[in-house]
Write a structure and sequence with these properties.
With about 120 residues, this protein is of the alpha+beta class. It contains two helices and five strands, in the order ββββαβα. Strand 3 and strand 4 form a beta hairpin. It is rod-shaped, with a radius of gyration of 27 Å.
């Protein structure tokens, strides 16, 4: 399965980085996981939240957040709508399903209603 991440929101933060104390280049992002296969595409309902500092190139984990970062995080989380998870089938799935149903219908007609297609018993 191929995994992608849908970016719901990215915001640059002006707070101090807990690692390098820079007030620039911190990015808060909210992402949603999307997995693709030949038969279906699933989108998960949970959010993946991360804060990354481009200056020191570190991810800032929730244990390192200051109260200011938590306030800004809570504000930005309220501005995005809660994503819903869904499953979507691909055209390949529907074509395989159509072929299976077509074969099953043909077998039913051949076995139980052979007089419809001009095949009669030779007894």
């Amino acid at each position: 399965m191929k995994t992608e991440y849908i970016i719901l929101k990215e915001a640059s933060l002006n707070n101090n980085c807990p690692e390098c104390y820079s007030t620039q280049d911190m990015v808060l992002s909210f992402k949603q996981k999307k997995m693709k296969s030949k038969f279906l595409v699933t989108t998960k309902s949970n959010l993946i939240e991360s804060i990354y500092c481009n200056k020191c190139e570190n991810q800032i984990f929730p244990g390192q957040w200051t109260t200011d970062i938590e306030r800004v995080y809570d504000y930005h989380k309220k501005t995005i709508s809660q994503p819903s998870g869904k499953i979507r089938f691909t055209w390949f799935f529907y074509s395989i399903l159509f072929l299976i149903l077509l074969i099953a219908a043909g077998a039913y007609i051949y076995l139980y209603h052979s007089n419809i297609i001009g095949i009669s018993d030779l007894n």
